[in-house]
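User: I'm putting together notes for a lab meeting next week and I want to include a structural view of one of the chains we've been expressing. I don't have a solved structure, so I'd like a prediction I can at least talk through. The sequence is below, exactly as it appears in our construct file.
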Amino acid sequence: MDSVISQLKENLQVLYRKAIDADASLAKLQAQGKGKFGSIFEESIGFQISSKQFKPYVEELSKDVDLLQGANEEEMQQSLTDVVKKMEIMFKTLAQFQQSLKD
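Assistant: Thanks for the context. Below is the predicted structure for the 103-residue chain, given as C-alpha cells.
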C-alpha cells in the first residue's frame, strides 16, 4: 500500500503545480470582471470545501491522502476510491480550464 500512497503523493505534486498556474489565470480573469462563479466544484463531487480557486481543493486532497496512511483496510478501500475519484475530476477540470484559455 506504500506504493499507492507514494503514487498519490506524486499526483498531488502535479496537481499542486497545475493548481497554482490555474489560480493565477483565474485571478487575471476575475480582475477583468470575468470568471464570476461561486465555486469550482459542486458539492456532489465530494469535496468538503467550496472555493473559487483550485489550491484549497488540492490541500483537502492532501489531507485525505494523509488520513489514508493511518486507516484500517476497510476504511482505506472506501477512502482510496473517493480520493482517486476527486483526483481524476481535478485533473480533468484543470485540463479543460487550461484548454479553454488557449481557445
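A couple of points you could mention at the meeting. The CA atoms of residues 72 and 79 lie 10 Å apart. The radius of gyration is 15 Å.

User: Perfect, that's what I needed.
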